[in-house]
Amino acid sequence: MTQSYVNINAMEIIYTSHAVERMIQRKISTQVIELIINEPDGSIKQSRDKYIYYKKIKNRNDNFIAAVTVIKAAKKFEIITVMTYFEVKK
Known about the structure:
Nuclear Transport Factor 2, Chain: A; alpha+beta; five-stranded mixed sheet
């Protein structure tokens, strides 16, 4: 696990169509995604520019919610998918 958090207030957030479909399907708002990225319970680096940020959200019983992200440029942050029932493997 890595502790690399991003202040998305200074970045443009781009949502792929796949991420939007999953957010609608799983009833996850853009505000929740921003909370997950700005104040995650943890993150996992998958490659040079790809991270999974995850957080347990109050009033939800689906374990951790995770956002898979890619930093596209200095000021562009892309959400490529959103998952529920995410489990951190140790």
